[in-house]
Amino acid sequence: MDTKNVDIRLNSKADLKGFKQAETALTKLNKTTKTFAKSFGLAFGASALVAFSKASVKAFAADEAAARRLSTAVDNLGIGFANPAISKYIADLEKSASIADDLLRPAFQALLTTTGSLTKSQELLSNAIQISRASGIDLVTVADDLAKGFVGTTRGLSKYNSGLTKAELQSKSFNEILGVILAKSAGAAEDYLTTTSYKMDALSIATGNASEIIGGGFVDALARASGGTEATDAAIFLETMAGLFNKVTLAAGTSVGAIPTLAQNLKKLGKDIFFGFVGKQAGANLATPPKTTEAKLTLTEKKQQELLAKMEKEALRREKERLALLNKQNAAKKLQGVIDKANLALGKGGNIFDIEAIQINAALIGQAEALGKTSTDAQKLAIANDVQRLRVKQDINALEDAIASKDTVAIEKATAKLNEDLKILGVLQKQDTKLLDISNVLSNIKSKDLINLDNLNQAAALLSAMSGVRIGSQAVSAAAGVVSGAGVTAASVAGLSLNMPVAGTDFNPNQQRDRNYTNNVINVTAGVIGDENIIVDAVQNALNEIARRGYLTTYAGAIAV
Amino acid sequence: MPSVEIRGNTDLRRALRLFAPDLEKTLRDEMKAGLLPVVKQARGFVPSTVPMSGWAARSFSEARFPFYNAQLIRKNIGYSTLVSKPNKNGFTSMARIFNGSGVGAIYETAGRKNANGQVWVGPKAGGSSKGVSRSVNPGAGKQFIDNLEPISNSLKGRGRLIYRAWAANRGIAEGIVNKAVDKAITQFYARNKESKFSKAA
User: Fold this and answer.
1) Is 50 exceeded by the pLDDT of residue A243?
2) Residue B89 pLDDT > 70, yes or no?
3) Could you tell me which of A51, A95, A93, A349 has the C-alpha nearest to residue A214?
4) Rounded distance, CA B159 to CA A251, Å?
5) Which of B1, B16, B156 to mutate to test the interface with A (most CBs of A within 10 A)?
6) pLDDT tens-place string over residues B60-84
7) Is the Cβ of A20 closer than 8 Å to some Cβ of chain B?
8) Pairwise CB contact (< 8 Å): A19 & B96
9) I want to staple B125 with a disulfide (CB 3.0 to 4.6 A). Which of A136, A295, A435, B121 is the partner?
10) Where are the alpha helices (DSSP H) in A353-373?
11) Residue B98: beta bridge partners?
12) Mean pLDDT, chain A, whole residue set
């Protein structure tokens, strides 16, 4: 019976190996601080030595590869002679800031290749260290973000909690954004130097460097032992010699106490071992090959300075070009914005501008003038409107000219004037509307004059002449209401009685009945109208009967659908 | 110095053990307080008398099917507040309740998969496949299951002892454990903010 599944698991989570790696590193560090030399010396057997040497060789190889990459990048910039100075700068920075050169090199490389300037790269690397300390984000990422930001891609800088919005990040220059970030991370680098973490970092770097140095020594020594010069030769030899190390006992190992001493000793270890013992065991010729001095072309100091100056100048030129391009883009954007605005204003102007209206109004103005300027207020307003329209038209023309000339100032000025005149025109039109409303009201009032007593009398006379026409009580009462002020009623004027029946329309109770009308009774046979329930019962019974017995088109027992 | 990233239960407990041993102890105590009542109740569900005479212990055995032993079952029902080993999918649990004995597992789960017992093939059937009944009695599996208590359902699974107790607990234990873990995490990070952790000497 499998009992593994008979349990209840709580708070299950996927476990990953992050902490394990970190703990391994921590354990390693502890060992290196306390028992590095001791353990190395005591456990100088095959497995320990081979494992350590493998790790050292690996560390050395990684370090060498990173250095080579940076060196190549510097060469590509045409300042290969500056490699030693850059290496020194990295080494010094590693010591002062306690950041491993494994991190500093790629960070510096990213900045150098992007900026093309040594001074700018150094400045940005310093900034990157500060930001990295403050934010906790690793240095290479920070340097990469700064390099991208330097060329205008500032999106990556949002992660440093600068408090800038996305729009601000896009609109502000790199230097402005960097200034904000640096202001917020000020002092972080200095504070970090006082922490235990910094001390541990320093220790870690020291041991890492020791490992790299040891690895370098091993590679050289083992490569020579295998008859080659490359690290691959060393690796092959290391494997084959592993068994032989079982027999090796070195008193020197136990005497190694401190890391630097150990590093120095171990650097020499390769040579010593293989000269003294392994060489004999392996029967290999391990004589030190004479150093071949390569003839190198060295640049004069002056030439170097010239090249550096040229590089800086080139970087500056590129930066200027970039800024000029950026300005051009911004100017183009600004111009486009202004043009859009102007077009908007033109659109508004076009909507209210009507050439026919102008012509008509011009004619009106002409007429008004012809009348000896004896116009009313409404006419004056119309004239003012037309004048304003003409001004708007002039503004539109001016704005179109300005847009054609692409003169930003002129466009803005013309747009402002057009908007101003449009406002005035708008105000005038509103007044025009009000005046129009008033005149409409007045004209309505005037039209009521048509209904006066004379007209009404005439209408009433006409109606009285028409014998077959009846005036409804409502119409009459309305008419009476209208002319009540005159003291007479329409009915009296017309001589009509309101209660007079109209033949064929109103029922006249006094009318003599028809002869057949009195005793004529019409009976309508509606059948028996029963109660609703009775009808329902009847229908149900009928359905039941049909179901039981069937009827003409169906058979008994069928369910009616 | 490599930055330490805590991921998952193992990391958390290691980190607690290394940097805040008192928090780890508190966490264990709190989880225990949640789990122990379930365990006790589960132990109480173990019948003192053998559910069927044929399952009782005897002086000799014809097969490897374990005898019923209430004491053994009770003894092996327990809890653990240690982080489990990762399962095949890489998941670990922060705490667990187990029914560890073979006979206890049988009592716990019999009939869970086949309510009427496994498919009967009889003793004369060939092959060596498991998961079938080779008893001379075609109804042996059903009889066995019928003699046991009915299976209880819980959110963690179905069974007669720990799952029944878990169902009866109605999530109280789980709540206690989850809360304790959350509390430990919160306090751990809060302490780390106050002062960076370094490994105890």
Assistant:
1) no
2) yes
3) A51
4) 66
5) B1
6) 766 678 899 999 999 999 999 998 8
7) yes
8) no
9) B121
10) 355-370
11) A7, B78
12) 67
Distance CA A150, CA A355 (A): 55
Residue B5 contacts residue B170 (beta carbons within 8 Å): no
Closest CA to A285 of A241, A220, A234, A224: A224
Q: What is the DSSP string of A291-304?
A: PPPP---PPPHHHH
pLDDT for residue B197: 65
Q: Given this model, what pLDDT does residue A11 score?
A: 79
In the three-class reduction of DSSP (H, G, I as helix; E, B as strand; rest coil), residue A508 is classed as coil
pLDDT band of A220, cuts 50, 70, 90: low
Tokens of A140: 């290479």
Q: What is the pLDDT of residue A417?
A: 86
CA atoms of A18 and B7, how far apart (whole Å): 6
Question: Region A475-495: what's the mean pLDDT?
Answer: 46
Beta bridge partners of A338: none
CB atoms under 10 Å from CB of B191, counted, come to 14
Q: Does B146 touch chain A (CB under 8 A)?
A: no
B91 to A25: CB separation less than 8 angstroms, yes or no: no
CB-side neighbour CA atoms (13 Å) of A200 = 17
- Quick: pLDDT tens for A321-334: 888 888 888 888 88
For residue A109, the tally of other CB atoms under 10 A from its CB is: 22
Sequence-separated (6 or more) residues with CB below 8 Å from residue A346: A396, A399, A400, A418
Question: How many CB atoms lie under 10 A from the CB of residue B80?
Answer: 19
> For strand B119-120 and strand B132-133, is the pairing parallel, antiparallel, or unpaired?
parallel
Q: Which residues contact A518 (CB under 8 A, 6 or more apart)?
A: none
CA atoms within 13 A on the CB side of A185: 25
For residue A439, is pLDDT > 60? no
The token duo for B54 is 């044929």
Q: What is the DSSP letter of A449?
A: G
The residue with greater pLDDT, A370 or A251, is A370
Q: Tokens standing for A115?
A: 């900026």
Q: Which two three-digit tokens encode residue B120?
A: 């009967």
B 161-190: CB under 8 A from A: 162-163, 166, 173-174, 177-178, 181
CB-CB neighbours of A471 under 10 Å: 18
Q: How many angstroms separate the CA atoms of A219 and A213, rounded?
A: 10
Q: What are phi and psi of A393, to 5 degrees?
A: -60, -40
pLDDT at residue number A426: 81
* CA distance linking residue B19 with residue A458, whole number of Å: 116
Q: Which amino acid belongs to residue A49?
A: L
A4 in reach of chain B (CB within 8 A): no
* Residues in chain A, total: 561
Rounded Cα distance between B77 and B39, Å, is: 7
The full DSSP string for A120-173 is: HHHHHHHHHHHHHHHH---HHHHHHHHHHHHTT--GGGGGG-----HHHHHHS-
Lowest mean pLDDT among A165-174, A421-430, A462-471: A462-471
Q: Is residue A286 pLDDT above 60, yes or no?
A: no
Structure tokens at A27: 């354990």
Q: Which residue of B has its CA nearest to A98?
A: B1
Query: What separation in angstroms does the CA of B195 have from each of A49, A200, B19, B198?
Result: 38, 15, 11, 9
User: Is the pLDDT assigned to residue A194 strictly greater than 50?
Assistant: yes
Q: What pLDDT does B10 receive?
A: 81
CA atoms within a 13 Å half-sphere pointing along the CA-CB vector of A281: 16
Position A505 confidence tier, pLDDT thresholds 50, 70, 90 = low
Handedness of CA A444, A446, A447, A452 (dihedral sign): positive
Q: Of A384, A397, A382, A381, which is closest to residue A349 (Cα–Cα)?
A: A397
Question: What pLDDT is stored for residue B176 in this prediction?
Answer: 93
Residues 6+ apart with CB under 8 A from A91: A101
State the Cα–Cα distance between residues A53 and A31, nearest whole angstrom: 16
The owner of tokens 């306090």 is B187
